[in-house]
């Protein structure tokens, strides 16, 4: 169950709140006026989130690089739609299966 505290409680007991977050490795939501405003989380969890974000950015850059390389290799030619490639592969497979009978 997520722990939720008011902004006033977080201010008054911030030391306890920090200790609880670190010991339990669970974030705490801080509300103001009954609405969530911030989350207190451990530095370990923060670093994990940053690493995940960096991995996602690295992946996006790799995909973009691959797209650019494919475009460069294709030149003016159009890329065959995936549906067409799948259709061709299925036809080849079916022909091979029929030949085995």
- Overall 3D shape: elongated
Alpha-beta content class: alpha+beta
What is the strand tally?
A: 3
Q: How many individual domains?
A: 2
Portion in helices: 55-70%
| Individual helix count | 4
Mean pLDDT: 92
Helices and strands, in N-to-C order? EHHEEHH
First-to-last CA distance: 60 Å
Identify the strand order in the major beta sheet.
1-2-3
How would you sum up this structure in a few lines?
The protein has 101 residues and is α+β, with helices and mostly antiparallel strands.
Explained architecture:
This protein has 101 residues and is of the alpha+beta class. The protein has two domains: 3-41, YefM-like fold; 47-100, no CATH class. Helix content is 67%, strand content 15%. It contains four helices and three strands. The chain has helices at residues 7-12, 14-24, 43-74, 82-100; strands at residues 3-6, 28-32, 35-40. The protein has a three-stranded mixed β-sheet with strand order 1-2-3. The N and C termini lie far apart (60 Å). The model has no long low-confidence stretch (mean pLDDT 92).
